[in-house]
Each structure stands twice: as C-alpha cells, then as structure tokens.
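User: Just a sanity check before I run the rest of the batch. Below are the structure tokens for the first item. I only need the designed sequence back.
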C-alpha cells in the first residue's frame, strides 16, 4: 500500500531475484560516501527487511566470499572488471555477480546515485545475477528552484506552505529536510536554490549574518546528499541592505559591497553554488536602472563570487511588462532573444544564463525559445516549471514529462534533412563546450510544500520524479518515466499500469480543453487557473490573442512581428508557413481565419470545437479509470485523488463551454457535429 509521504521510495517487501550479501565493504570517504553506505543498508532494510552489516576498508574484503562493495571506480575496478564504460562525472557502474554486488562511483556523488539506482532497480525487479549497468548524467546541472517566501507562502505553490520558512524566518523540521534531500538526490538532483527569485521583504536579509547562520543548517543537510545550494539575491541589495545610494554595477562602492558580501556568505557556506538573479523583470531591480547591460550586472556579481568558486545564474526572463495592447508592433515573444543574443560572448566564465523553455512563460504549448541554438559563447541552461501554474494548479492532473519530451525533441538547429545537421534540445544538453550551443543543464521550479504527500495531488509526484530523471537523461521518454514512477510508487501491479495509462492521457486532455493550438494566455488573470479568455487582452503584460469575428492570433512571421526570424533559417521557414508549421503551434505563429483548413481537412474553428469536446471527454475518462482503482488503493489516497479528478472535470467543463461559446459568439458558426454549445 502507498505511503504518500515516501514518494517513489516506498517501504515494500519485495522478492529479490538475487541474494543480497549481509556484509558491506565500503571505501573510506567523505560525508557523501557515508550517506551512500547508509542509504544502501537502509534501502535493503526497506525492501527486504534486513540490514546488512557495514565494514569499512574495502581491501580486507577481497577474500570475503559474499559481499557488497561500495566505493570509487579506481578502487572497485581493482576487485572486478567491468564490461561497461568507465563512468564520467557523477556517474556510476553497478555489477552483480553470483556472489558479490559492486557499486562504483566516478566520485562520491556518483556512488550515491549508483546506490539509489540499484535500490530502484531492485524494487522494480530488474536486478539479476550478471546484471551490469553504467550510467553518467547527461546534464551537469540538475537544478531545483524554490519560489518560497520567508513569510512561509510559496509563489505559485499548490501543495501547502514552505518547507523552509515561516513568519519571516527559517523554520524547518530537520527530518523533513533530510527526507526531501534524499528524494531529490535519488532522482539525481544536484543543486537547489532555496528562495524565491522575487527577493522581497525578509528574503533580502538572507545574505546577512543572522540568516546565514541558519542557512548553514539547511546547506549541511543538502550537502550530505551531494546537493549544493544557490541563494536568490536582490540586485538592489547595495541600497536596500547596504544603504549605498545606488546598485550601479560599475560603481566601485557597489562592486566592493558585493565582494565583501560574498566573502561573508562563503564564510558561512563555503560550498555555496552561487547566486540566482531575476533582474529588470516584473518590477525587480536591475542594471537597466543605471543604463547598464545585463552583462555588466551579471559580470559584476560573477567577479565577487569568482574567488570562492561560485557562479551567477542570471535569468533571461526580461521583458517589458508595461505594454500597450493598442501597439501591435511590440511582441513580448521577441524579448529574451532581443535582450540577450546581442550580449553573447560578453559574460564572464562563471555566469550561466537561465532561459525559460519558451519565449512566453511556461504556457501549455510554446515553441522552444530561439535563444537556444543562438547563444554560442555564453554558458546557459533551460528553465522548466514543475509547479503547475498554468497547467492546473495540482488540482488537474497534468503529467508534464509528456510535453518535456516534445521540448527535448525540438529541433533547435536544423539544416536540411540530414540527421548529422540536426540538433535537438537533447542533443545539445551536456557539459559546456566553448563556441557551441551546448545547454549545460536544466533548472525547474518545484511543486512541493508542507502537504503530507509533498505535491498536493498525489499523482503530481510523478512530475517531480520525472523532472529529475529527465534532467539526468533527456532522452528518456515520458512513457518510460511514467512506467518507472508508477511501479516504484504503487508496486508492480495492475493498478500501477492503470495509473501509468492515466498519466499518459492527462497532458493531451489538458491541452485540448484549455487554450487551443498554442494560442496561450486564455487563463484567469492573476491566479492562472481556469478560463479567462480575454483576461489578458487589454492588460499591460503583452500576451494578446486578438480574436475578432474573422480571425485569431498574431502574425509572428517576417511580415508580422518578425519573431520567426529569430530561429535558425530552416526553422524560420517551417514556422513561417502555415502549411508546414506544426499544428499544435499554429496559433502561436500565425493569425488565421476561422475557416483556415487544418491538416485534418477541417476548419480551424471546427478543430477548436472538436478539441474542446474531446478534452472534456478525456478528463471524464480519467475520472472513470480512477474509479476502477477503488479497491486496489488506500482509501485516503483514492479519495483525495478522486476529489481532484472531480474538480478537474468541473474545470474542464468550464473551459470547454466558455471557449466554445466564445468562438460561437464571435463567429456565429455552429458546430458541424451539432453538439451543445451554450449561447
Ligand atoms: C516568480 C511568471 C509567474 C511569476 C514568476 C515569474 C518568474 O510571471 O507568474 O509568479 O515570479 O513568472 O518566472 O519570475
């Protein structure tokens, strides 16, 4: 039975296909190694009900007949030969013989990940005699971003209050943080930013001694699990905290202020990964205030962190949020590229740009930002959102690896049809290589809070797990991850198979009953849950669809706002032509008449009606499928998820009816299939 708190690391008696030796020999190492050894023995206890005895000093174990050997690759390879490749940074190899189990890390983190993977595979029934596996993470940076505020709230959080803060201060249960760190590490995460990128109120004090002392406790727990922390800072700190007259990045007093501040911070957290910065964005201060560039701003901070080995992660979510809806020349989708492409090559070596996956803001369907592929001389990573801001608030089920798989397969650079000249996002993810468009990793805004099941909707746990797995290996499919997660959480059972099926239905259903064909921003303003079809039409945020009685969408081709021209030439060609543009993005790129004929031979309008009826029906099917699990699941879990599916269906109904009515009223054209559309 499922204990929701334990996520994908359930306590469940399994029948292993191998004997697990009772003795563990572990190489002497640091605290991550010690943690790895403890995780191994606790994990065996969790799955098999006994705890192997641990003995240090790996060499004396060579004569031992049956034993587990945990250590670093150079040491373990003296004991046994591996046929798989030597692991790279943070990677591992696992080998199971008739008598022994060997887990060898490239480094201490690699060993920890190897232990966690061994335990997952054991739980999934995939370990047998002769088993051998080598695996190295594809992305060096696998980051979780928290948007937690010091008052305990979480911006865009849907699973209770912050794990870290309350009433303006750090306030955490240490056991819960340890469990959280374990879950993250078991999914392969190696960095966590601990506070909201909107650094307001007491969060500004995080870089003062009083707060840093408490942050060390948090950092110490994460450290044991191989996770380094980032701090989000406010660019205006020199004046808001330091009482200087400005925060101008070229002002010597400001430069000195940050250098001193960095020294103080690293005194408390010597392995701090660095700063995360949202500047000149949605009201946050930044270098534009002083007519400086974002390179000036980021490099100034980077110089302060450089002596301590820290990096600056600088977000590219910079756009004008004071737009005039009357002005049709200004297109928010162009902003990140326009702001950052001209600065390519101007950032210091320890600056990494963090770019939202799409040009807008975590919408249900967006193209991949054209900055990917365009930046060749600046380190950068991709930002995703696990928390379901625009995807149903963890009330609606929306299994995000479904769309992340599409993002990973997006052709960033494509020249002709030759495979060799094709670079998808996943082909570009990897260690930084100067002069290439490599993406050094992923960051994602997390979906957890103090709710006992961590994520509010129990099935939203799959999104957290899925992110970690995908960050480790961006070539994994949504289906593979769903299968793995369901079986780890619910055991190898028919229930797990049905849950996998439900997960895989959820994203297409959500996409269909919400905004159609990549149109974006038809959500309720502010909350971003439920329909608000014209909620953003006349606002300052720059996200308009401009539907009238004839047509909908924005022409983003060279004849329109020119956004398509930011892509590589082949992509620009494909997106510019409605006959080659992917259908699910056609309204992101084009303004189309309602009678435009889509690939399936139906008009755009009929496709809008059809997808909304279908999406609603699919939400209803998910609810029915869930009901068939009543007797297979713990009653609490069954009921809490059931109530969310019921709320989801009500939401889907609102979306379907409001969207269909809206377009019926605009056009006066009825549904060809004669279904009920309210007037
Ligand atoms: C943290 C969107 C969200 C904001 C968020 C912002 C960002 O606009 O609605 O809540 O602020 O993105 O990514 O900085």
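Assistant: Here's the designed sequence for the first item:
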């Amino acid at each position: 039975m499922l204990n929701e708190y334990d996520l994908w690391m359930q306590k469940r008696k399994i029948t292993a296909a191998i004997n697990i030796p009772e003795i563990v020999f572990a190489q002497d190492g640091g605290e991550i190694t010690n943690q790895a050894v403890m995780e191994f023995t606790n994990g065996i206890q969790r799955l098999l009900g006994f705890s192997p005895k641990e003995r240090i000093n790996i060499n004396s174990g060579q004569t031992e007949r049956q034993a587990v050997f945990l250590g670093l690759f150079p040491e373990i390879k003296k004991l046994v030969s591996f046929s798989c490749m030597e692991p790279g940074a943070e990677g591992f190899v696992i080998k199971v013989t008739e008598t022994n189990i060997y887990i060898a890390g490239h480094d201490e983190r690699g060993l920890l990940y190897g232990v966690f993977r061994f335990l997952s595979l054991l739980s999934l029934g995939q370990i047998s005699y002769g088993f051998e596996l080598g695996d190295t993470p594809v992305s060096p940076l696998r980051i979780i971003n928290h948007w937690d505020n010091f008052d305990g709230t979480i911006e865009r959080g849907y699973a209770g209050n912050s794990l870290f803060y309350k009433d303006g201060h750090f306030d955490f249960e240490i056991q819960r943080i340890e469990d959280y760190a374990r879950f993250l590490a078991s999914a392969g995460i190696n960095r966590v930013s601990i506070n909201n990128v909107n650094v307001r109120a007491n969060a500004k004090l995080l870089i003062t001694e009083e707060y840093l002392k408490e942050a060390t406790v948090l950092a110490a727990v994460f450290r044991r699990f191989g996770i380094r922390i980032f701090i989000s800072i406010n660019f205006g700190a020199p004046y808001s905290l330091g009482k200087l007259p400005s925060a101008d990045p070229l002002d010597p007093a400001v430069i000195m202020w940050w250098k001193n501040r960095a020294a103080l911070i690293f005194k408390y957290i010597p392995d701090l990964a660095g700063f995360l910065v949202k500047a000149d964005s949605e009201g946050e201060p930044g270098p534009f205030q002083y007519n400086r560039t974002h390179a000036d701003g980021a490099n100034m901070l980077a110089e302060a962190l450089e002596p301590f080995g820290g990096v600056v992660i600088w977000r590219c979510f910079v756009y004008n949020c004071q737009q005039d809806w009357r002005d049709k020349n200004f297109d928010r989708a162009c902003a990140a590229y326009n702001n950052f492409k001209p600065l390519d090559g101007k950032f210091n070596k320890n600056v990494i740009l963090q770019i939202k996956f799409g040009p807008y803001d975590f919408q249900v369907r967006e193209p991949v930002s054209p900055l990917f592929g365009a930046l060749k001389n600046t380190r950068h990573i991709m930002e995703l959102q696990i928390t379901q801001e625009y995807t149903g608030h963890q009330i609606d089920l929306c299994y995000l690896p479904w769309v992340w798989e599409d993002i990973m397969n997006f052709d960033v650079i494509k020249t002709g049809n030759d495979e060799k000249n094709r670079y998808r996002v996943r082909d570009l993810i990897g260690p930084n290589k100067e002069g290439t468009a490599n993406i050094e990793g992923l960051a994602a805004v997390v979906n957890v809070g103090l709710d006992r099941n961590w994520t509010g909707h129990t099935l939203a746990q799959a999104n957290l797990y899925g992110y970690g797995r995908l960050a480790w290996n961006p070539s994994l499919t949504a289906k593979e991850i769903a299968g793995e997660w369901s079986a780890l959480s619910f055991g190898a059972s028919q229930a797990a198979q049905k849950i996998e099926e439900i997960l895989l239905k959820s994203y297409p259903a959500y996409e269909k009953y919400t905004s159609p064909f990549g149109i974006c921003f038809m959500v309720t303003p502010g909350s971003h849950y439920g329909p608000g079809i014209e909620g953003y039409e006349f606002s300052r945020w720059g996200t308009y669809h401009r539907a009238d009685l004839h047509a909908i969408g924005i022409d983003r081709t060279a004849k329109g706002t020119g956004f398509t021209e930011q892509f590589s030439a082949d992509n620009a060609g494909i997106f510019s032509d409605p006959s080659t543009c992917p259908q699910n993005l056609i309204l992101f790129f084009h303004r189309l008449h309602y009678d435009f004929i889509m690939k399936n031979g139906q008009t755009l309008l009929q496709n809008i009606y059809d997808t909304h009826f279908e999406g609603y029906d699919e939400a209803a099917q998910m609810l029915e499928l869930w009901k068939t699990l009543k007797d297979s699941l713990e009653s609490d879990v069954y009921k809490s998820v059931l109530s969310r599916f019921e709320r989801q269906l009500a939401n889907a109904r609102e979306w379907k009816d409001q969207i269909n009515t809206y377009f019926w009223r605009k056009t006066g054209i009825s549904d060809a299939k004669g279904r009920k559309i309210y007037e």
